[in-house]
Amino acid sequence: MNRTLTIIKPDAFASGKSGLILAHLEKAGFRVIAARVMHLSDAQAKEFYAVHRERPFYAPLVAFMTSGKCMPMVLERDDAVAELRRVIGATDPAQAEAGTVRKLYAESKERNAIHASDSDENAAREARFFFAESELIASLQAVPVASGLSPMA
Ligand code: ATP
Ligand code: MG
């Protein structure tokens, strides 16, 4: 088992597709480890997509990603990074294979419904970008009682 980071982007969240997309991912064998609904700040979106800062689509991408709420999630399954990239399909929905999340739910190459990490290293970095270490623990049973997080304490 390993992990990847996904974001249901503001287009899909605003149009009420987050439940459909999560169901699609769960049917594809992913389990949710951590999730939240949030509105990215300008600084957060710029940092998250910093790798693209020289690209012409960077400013509109930051504007889009800060245009409304989104839903970052850490997902787990075997071969998580490669499998999620396969399940979401190509960046441009016009190029995405039938049955992929982007083919089903994306509006355009920019407003493309969902993000997925592109390497194990980036998945770990992106998970830490959105979540505290304590949120990334697989289950409360793995938490020592001494931490104070046990429901029995
Ligand atoms: P993501 O990183 O969001 O999972 P990706 O890895 O398929 O998507 P990237 O090349 O990393 O694609 O681009 C990041 C995001 O920037 C894309 O998902 C899309 O929202 C936007 N984007 C990429 N290329 C373009 C473009 N040519 N025009 C407009 N927006 C683009
Ligand atoms: Mg990418």
Structure explained in plain terms:
With 153 residues, this protein is an alpha+beta fold. It has one domain (2-147): Alpha-Beta Plaits. It has helices at residues 10-14, 18-27, 42-48, 58-65, 80-88, 101-105, 120-130; strands spanning 2-8, 31-35, 71-77, 114-116. Strands 2-3-1-4 form a four-stranded antiparallel beta sheet. It starts with a strand and ends in a 23-residue tail after the last helix. Adenosine-5'-triphosphate (ATP) is lined by residues 52, 57, 61, 91, 109-110, 112, 115-116, 118.
Question: What are the defining features of this structure?
Answer:
153 residues; alpha+beta; 7 helices; globular; binds adenosine-5'-triphosphate; binds magnesium ion
Summary, kept brief:
By secondary structure, this protein is an alpha+beta fold.
Q: Provide the CATH topology.
A: Alpha-Beta Plaits
The number of domains is 1
Question: CATH architecture, please?
Answer: 2-Layer Sandwich
Largest sheet: 4 strands, antiparallel
The CATH homologous superfamily is termed: Nucleoside diphosphate kinase-like domain
Shape: globular
Bound molecules: adenosine-5'-triphosphate, magnesium ion
Widest β-sheet, arrangement of strands:
2-3-1-4
Secondary-structure map:
Elements: E1 2-8, H1 10-14, H2 18-27, E2 31-35, H3 42-48, H4 58-65, E3 71-77, H5 80-88, H6 101-105, E4 114-116, H7 120-130
Antiparallel strand pairs: 1-3, 1-4, 2-3
